[in-house]
């Protein structure tokens, strides 16, 4: 280690094995600091946003949607990918409107986090949204969402008891709890 930094892994080769509409996958061959060679599968994902919307009654506005990979619905904070040429703040406002039907008059950045850095490049930008007014945008054609209002006073209990299990939602809520 140098200056408390770990020595980076040296990329020997990188091969693209999948290129989809949401992400791509590469297999990288690396040389470690000890000389060993390893293979890493990397999901290359565009940056995204997650929003913790707070209404005038101190409820967190959540979305419930079915998630095919796990074959169940989850209670989540609104979230989505940042589109080409879009700033994270613009993306957060768009996703909030598409998923909840609300526009925020007070949208504040609260921090960034890596969603799954062991295999993905996705960086999530977290926001808290207040001063909500009804101003819906057309949802994506593949989104079937139910809106739920959870009192802030109960939100940590929802996480503790497993009623909220989505990692990005848990991360954003905990970030919000420390800055509110």
Tell me, briefly, the overall form: elongated
Listing every helix as H and every strand as E from the N terminus to the C terminus, the arrangement reads EEEEEEEHEEEHH
Spatial separation of the terminal alpha carbons: 37 Å
Classify the helix fraction into a percent range: 10-25%
Q: CATH superfamily name of the largest domain?
A: Nucleoside Triphosphate Pyrophosphohydrolase
Number of strands: 10
Tally of distinct domains: 2
CATH architecture of the largest domain: Alpha-Beta Complex
CATH class of the largest domain: Alpha Beta
Global structural class: alpha+beta
CATH topology of the largest domain: Nucleoside Triphosphate Pyrophosphohydrolase
Would you kindly provide a written description of the structure presented here, covering whatever features stand out?
The longest helix is centred in the middle third of the chain and has 13 residues, at 88-100. This protein has helices spanning 88-100, 152-160, 167-179, and strands spanning 10-19, 23-31, 37-45, 48-53, 59-67, 72-76, 79-81, 102-114, 123-134, 145-151. The chain has three helices and ten strands; from the N terminus they run βββββββαβββαα. A hairpin with an 8-residue loop joins strand 8 and strand 9 (123-134). It is α+β, with helices and mostly antiparallel strands and 180 residues long. The chain folds into two domains: 10-45, no CATH class; 48-179, Nucleoside Triphosphate Pyrophosphohydrolase (Alpha-Beta Complex). The strands form three sheets. It has a four-stranded mixed sheet, sandwiched between helices.
């Amino acid at each position: 280690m140098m200056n408390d930094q770990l020595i980076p892994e040296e990329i020997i080769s990188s091969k693209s094995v999948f290129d989809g509409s949401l992400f791509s996958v590469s297999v990288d061959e690396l040389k470690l600091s000890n000389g060993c060679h390893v293979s890493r599968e990397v999901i290359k994902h565009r940056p995204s946003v997650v929003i913790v919307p707070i209404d005038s009654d101190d409820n967190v506005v959540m979305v419930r949607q079915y998630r095919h990979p796990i074959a169940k619905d989850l209670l989540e904070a609104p979230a989505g990918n940042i589109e080409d040429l879009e700033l994270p703040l613009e993306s957060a406002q768009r996703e909030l409107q598409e998923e909840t039907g609300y526009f925020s008059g007070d949208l504040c950045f609260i921090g960034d986090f890596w969603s799954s850095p062991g295999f993905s490049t996705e960086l999530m930008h977290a926001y808290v949204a207040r001063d909500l007014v009804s101003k819906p945008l057309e949802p994506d054609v593949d989104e079937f969402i139910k809106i739920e209002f959870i009192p802030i006073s109960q939100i940590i209990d929802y996480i503790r008891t497993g009623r909220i299990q989505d990692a990005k939602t848990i991360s954003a809520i905990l970030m919000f709890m420390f800055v509110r």
